[in-house]
Write a structure and sequence with these properties.
Layout (H helix, E strand, L loop, with lengths): L1 H15 L11 H19 L10
Protein name: Polysaccharide lyase 8 N-terminal alpha-helical domain-containing protein
Pfam families: Lyase_8_N (PF08124)
Organism: Clostridium gallinarum
């Protein structure tokens, strides 16, 4: 679980930091994947209606 959030965090850093050669800066496809990943984790593990691994 922690690794999923860590990977999304790293993706968000790539999206938001302007460095020379960073082709992911403000990349719409990456942005959409970050949002989809967060939504999936919420739906499957943290929402009140999910029956995910943590029994939420």
């Amino acid at each position: 679980m922690n690794s999923s959030y860590l990977k999304l965090y790293e993706m968000a850093l790539l999206y938001s930091v302007s460095l020379e050669g960073n082709t992911y800066y403000k990349n719409e496809d990456l942005r959409n994947k970050i949002i989809q990943g967060l939504e999936w984790l919420y739906t499957n593990y943290y929402s009140k209606t999910s029956e995910g691994y943590y029994g939420n």
